[in-house]
Write the structure tokens for this entry.
Amino acid sequence: INQTDKTAFVRDVTIPDMTSILTGSSFTKKWALKNAGSEHWFKRRLRCMDSDYVMARRDSPGILVEQASISLKPTTREIVIPDTAPGAVVTLAVDFVAPTHPCTTLSTWKMVNEVGELCFPNLAGLWCLVKVYDL
């Protein structure tokens, strides 16, 4: 682990944890992140670490039929992180579509380098945690 490469969460710019979101709606989550080390961040990306989960029922021949998604759906699985100098703060944005079923759901994201290796494997990363409701 590179001891001179560090990151620090600054704040949720939009959609703080447990924000209520309407089922099926689109929204943009933004995080402010600081390059807290002495390494310049070049060619880095923020990658979605989620697995997809669905609610399903078993059809008469035994085939699973999706009933409702309970996962946040990002419009992309990876975003580019602008080159970031040591000490600088960068704002990262991901567009999501909320599940079609009321639930509390989480999407997690981690920084990777130009070859796809995790930059900070022991850190939790960034996340979007929302309560999805129906009218």
